[in-house]
Amino acid sequence: MKAFLAIIRKELLEFLRSYGLLIVVLYSFTLDVYIAGNGINLDARNVSVGVIDYSPGFISNKILSDLHYPQFQEPVFFTSQEKLNLAIRNKEIMVGIVFESDFEKRYHTGNNPVLNLLLDSTASTQSYLALNYIRHILMRFQDTSSLAPAEIQIHKLFNPNTSYSHFMALSEFLSIITLLAVILTAAVFVKEKENGTWDIMLLMPTDAKAVILAKSLSQVIIVMVGTFVCVGTVLFGIFDLPINGSLAAFMLLTFFYAFTSAGIGLFIASVSRNIMQVAQLSVLIMMPLIFLSGAWTPVYAMHPILECLSIISPLRYYIQGSESVFFRGTALIDLWEYFAGVIVLGGVMFWYGFRKIGKLF
Amino acid sequence: MRIGVIKAYFKKELLDIYRSKLILMVYIMPSMLLILFGYGIKTEVTHTRTLIIDNDQSKASYDLVSTFEHSKYFNSEVKNLSENRALDLIKQDKKDLIIIIPEEFEKHLLKGLKTSVGVYIDGSFPSRAKTTENYVNGIIYDTIMKRSVSKAESKALITINARNLFNQSLRDEDMIVPGVISLVLLIAPAVLSALLIVKEKENGTIFNFYSSSVKKSEFLAAKLLPVLLLHGINIFILFLWAIYLFELPFRGSFLLYTFSSLIYIIISLSVGLLVSIITSSQIVAYVLTLIITIIPGFLYSGMLMPISSMEEESVIVAHIYPVMYYTHILYDVFLVGDGLSASKNVLYLIILVGYAAILLTVGSLLLKKRIA
Amino acid sequence: MNRLQVRKVSVTYRKKTGLKPVSLEATGGEIVGLIGADGAGKSSLMHAIAGAKSFDGEIKFDNHIYSSPKEAEKVKGSIGLMPQGLGLILYEQLSVNEHLDFFADIRGIRQDSAFKTYRERLLHMAGLSDFTERQAGKLSGGMMQKLALICTLLHRPKLLLLDEPTTGVDPLSRMELWDILNDIIAKEKTLCIVSTAYMAEATKMDRVFLFEDGEIIDKGKAGELIEKVRPFSYEAAPEPFEKSITIHGYTYSLKPLKLKPKEPTLDAVFFINFIKKYGPIPEISIVHKDRDEDVPATIMEAKGLTKRFGEFVANDHIDMELNRGEILGLLGANGAGKTTFIKMLLGLLPIDDGELFLLGERIKSSDDRQILKAKIGYVSQHFALYKGMSVRENLRYFANMHHIESERISGLIREYANTLGFYRYLDVLPTDLPMGINQRFSVAAAIMHEPVVLFLDEPTSGVDVVARAVFWEMLQRLKDEWNIAILITTHYMSEAEFCDRVVLLRDGKKITDDTVKNLYQIHPDAHNFEDIFLDYYNSN
Fold first, then answer.
1. Are C400 and A199 an interchain contact pair (Cβ–Cβ within 8 Å)?
2. A8 neighbors A214 (Cβ within 8 angstroms)
3. Hey, where are the domains in chain A?
4. Nearest C-alpha of chain B: how many angstroms from A155?
């Protein structure tokens, strides 16, 4: 136990004295998460609209007056199709609206009035959303609800205002935990291998398993401190992230997950000879794990083979678990699957690490 | 600059990269990222796990249910549960969407009385929630309209004739793949060039540079050219993936693609150079490079959102990073095809060249040919 | 004529002074030696001359005057620097040939026939002709240094700066290195500035400069330096005198003593200087420990130990015994298999063949080692210490790892620091300390748990004369007072004489195993142990 604490103390001391690493880690947990949360908004906002109006303009202006902030920018009028096209190509305009000369007549006579839209779909998400906004605007404009009395009551659970910053900040934060826990741990072990101190560690009367666990735990502690800082200042402080479940459950899950990631780091370290190899392997191993985790596409929407493979990605359990705690407010008891997944995978990693570098001959 | 010196270093770097198996990272990482992201990021939302509670059990409600059942966007299941039980399923992440059809749904519709369909969406993944919302809205409205609006009435409604320029079928790949190319070409060369220089610092072989008459420019050229060459090949590999695996159109000039990509790689490796100047250990250089390239690479690649719909401050920041300019050209060569006839492309290309020149100059000015 | 003038050159690092203003002059064809303790400023001076570090003052070489690395650019073409560290300037992944090509190209050498002949000659002299395709990472330490040297010589520099080129190199390779140097200098009239930790090498140089604390405190021919200390060297006194040092069969004293004078070596210069500056070496003593008598007389017994790396046999059926109260020297050229052998003993490498007994127990698996761990101490090459922690923190860490009770640790650290003489460095980081101090405190780290056997792998490489002498004193005390067994490898043949018994390895095979005394009897012509070593290595 004493040796165990001594190792943790030593690792933390060494970490605190390598200022470069300290600064990088601090940056990752604060500014980096802030930038991610602040910068990305997948919503269609501020959509730039270009208009060519060949119609008399009474109806068209009424429609256009409904395109407003925050979804749309003030429409810009163009005199010819070419100019509008050019503006779209230059990404100055995302949505072009063309009112034909007979638009108003057809509208009044009920003879299939058509609104022409030109969408820059190099940004397909936003174009699609913009199209839907305009559809809604038209429906409201023509008061279709009087025709069809059904209303759709949509409740978006857990995130009623569709805030992207919450989601993106949380996602970035989860990625940072993964990245740092894996690389920091791998580096700690490989550095000892490179310097020859690992041999000495193996010769200590302290059990090598305890040494490995303690070293990993020290990096987990660094990550956990980063987690507290990040959750406290950035997630809660700046982004005001709501939490519907228990913070303690999240912290516990994070702790286990960090340990499992450290296990991946240990695995990488045990098959690498130097930092260069760590750098290569960590990318080659982490990216597929992130891919399989469902961070981008939910696991259930994957190809069945990939869906099967995804059970080996600890990030899968962690992401689902964290989102459940923060957004869905899932009860602790219902999180057991995520805990189990993370812990089992971590166990496998450490088992391999113990066998590979934790033994004398 | 003496060609012999550069050639010698060049050859040494290539041998070193090859024998230390770094070559794997050079060629596997970019392709792997492209394939993973290309397949991994979908804006189209399919297989939404849907629970429909049909409290009406009428013709109209069956119609609605069957529309959901036949849609590839939804994996629907009809079950009679209480609202609370159903909500628990969302909480446990078993369902993403719950649709509750009220009693007397059909009756109300026929009589033109108010009726309301309840929809619950898991909003944890905001973009998916938004898209799901739109799909659901569309399906329900269409079904209702079909039942309750007469032909004459429907003729009077404004229809939308939307044309998607450049990406007719709204394919995700068309949007994601150019973005990933720009991301990958920002990260990978930066990491490699940073590691190549810091490695010499850490191992002590940097003395060969300090103590010989090798000029700073020669050393830089020798360190950066292999990166440019190796990743230059990636320009073509990534191109082939994009065209043949992801079936992207290629409407622009290949020359412009290659040239702008090369310039972009120079920018990226200059970032690596700058990192290598302020760090002396490989691990710090590595993590630092990753962190300072991934986020801007993602944000301003246009993969997730167009610059034009960003907030004002973000728009300014986007203009500071080189990512936006290159991405613009990439989307042009793949999807638009205006090439240099569009003045904006010319301007952006010039800006990229300027970036490369500035970063490279700053890097070489800061690089010191002596022990710190 | 290549003439080097160094005028009031000083070097500062971020916080500390590396070199106080020094001046010196030298001309082509000369071999100038820089000697002095680790951190005395030798490397700083070389880096300054090579234009690899900014400095104050002025250097003139080859009719160019420079006072910054930038101005030094014009002379760099005629300077060759080989920095300190085994194979430091080599690239692990490149082969010998590729290195020569690389260095020729970065030096802008025309690859004409004259160059090719020169290159062949260098390869031949370095004994690397048969290894041109081998990668540097797979060369032995001695070969690496020879390769590094010929790479530095490739452009026929007029000024050669070699920073401890022979440290960590075996006697044979060392001799070959000097042969190359002497040959080149004679033919090319190169000015050669060499720093060395081997005083025997310094005696052969034209002039030596003695460095201490960033200053040159003495200079002249080795003979002249020795002459100055002649009055202070005596045959070893049976009892210690006030203000004197008695070590390795000598007594050094500034005050005249009634002892028989003894012909001093260059080592004496260091001891005399030490006395002048610090007084006598503080008495080294060892923390008291009760002798445990239940330890078997034979600590380690190896029977036919064999290690193979693929085709290559690193250890070929080696039999060896190590007894309690014995210092066993394990000698051999770089790559002869010394480190491999120790690693097998410790369990850091699997044993391919043979039997190993430790403390009377047959070792079959790692489980058998678990209980023995507490009885073994190990100091590896390059003293594996944690660079981010002070000496005290390092020691505390190791003490904890050895399960020493917390209450005892502070006292123990103080005791060891006092007795081994590094008390005032306790709160300094290892990177800021001379090697000699690091060496002593890594031994402290290895013996705090009072082992019965100590394995030391090249603990004295790169350590200065006085520190080395103190180190051996310490080992003797350990042996005498704790009655422990010590297995040590070294490249200083003079140190072999302090061992009770010596085992010589060559190409993975044991070629002799005998007491030092017997070996001298077998080789009556040998002046010193180096001769004996070379005898074994040169005979087929």
1. no
2. yes
3. 2-40+162-357, 49-147
4. 5
Beta strands (DSSP E) in C89-200 are 159-163, 191-195
d(CA B335, CA B246): 13
Per the confidence metrics, is the pTM higher than 0.90?
A: no
d(CA C435, CA C466): 12
Q: Give the torsion through C-alpha atoms of C270, C275, C278, C280, to 10 deg.
A: 120
* Whether pLDDT at B332 is above 80: yes
Q: How many CB atoms lie within 10 A of CB B255?
A: 11
DSSP per residue, B183-202:
HHHHHHHHHHHHHHHHHHHH
Pick the last residue of a domain from B156, B184, B209.
B156
Count of beta carbons in the 10 Å neighbourhood of residue C371: 11
Architecture of domain C298-383+451-538: 3-Layer(aba) Sandwich (3.40)
Residue C357: other Cβ atoms inside 10 A: 16
Predicted confidence (pLDDT) per residue in C419-440, tens digit: 777 888 889 888 888 777 888 8
Q: With beta carbons under 8 A apart, name residues in chain B contacting A290.
A: 36
Mutate to test the interface with A, among B95, B119, B305, B319 (most CBs of A within 10 A): B305
**pLDDT digit string (tens) for C201-229?**
888 899 999 998 889 988 999 889 888 88
State ipTM.
0.84
Sole residue written with tokens 């690193």: C314
Mode of pairing for the β-strands spanning C56-61 and C159-163: unpaired
Q: Based on the domain organization, do B190 and B294 belong to the same domain?
A: yes
Cα–Cα distance for residue pair B293/B359, rounded to 1 Å: 15
Q: Which of B107, B130, B156 is the last residue of a domain?
A: B156
The CATH code of the domain at A49-147 is: 3.40.1710.10
Cβ burial of A206 (10 Å; 0-12, 13-18, 19+) is: buried
SS (H, E, C) B284-339: HHHHHHHHHHHHHHHHCCCCCCCHHHCCHHHHHHHHHCCHHHHHHHHHHHHHHCCH
Answer yes or no: is pLDDT of C253 > 90. Answer: no
Mutate to test the interface with A, among B77, B84, B89, B91 (most CBs of A within 10 A): B91
> Which CATH number do you get for residue B94?
3.40.1710.10
B333-358 confidence digits (pLDDT tens): 998 888 888 888 899 999 999 999 99
Q: Are B193 and B276 in contact (CB under 8 A)?
A: yes
Q: Do B306 and A35 touch (CB under 8 A)?
A: no
The phi and psi torsions of B54 (rounded to 5 degrees) equal: -100, 100
Q: Look at the domain C3-220 and name its fold.
A: Rossmann fold (3.40.50)
Nearest to C482 by CA among C438, C448, C457: C448
Do B105 and B181 share a domain, yes or no? no
| Shared-domain flag, residues B198 and B98 | no
Q: Is B2 on the interface with C (CB under 8 A)?
A: yes
Cα C439 from Cα B248, distance rounded (Å): 64
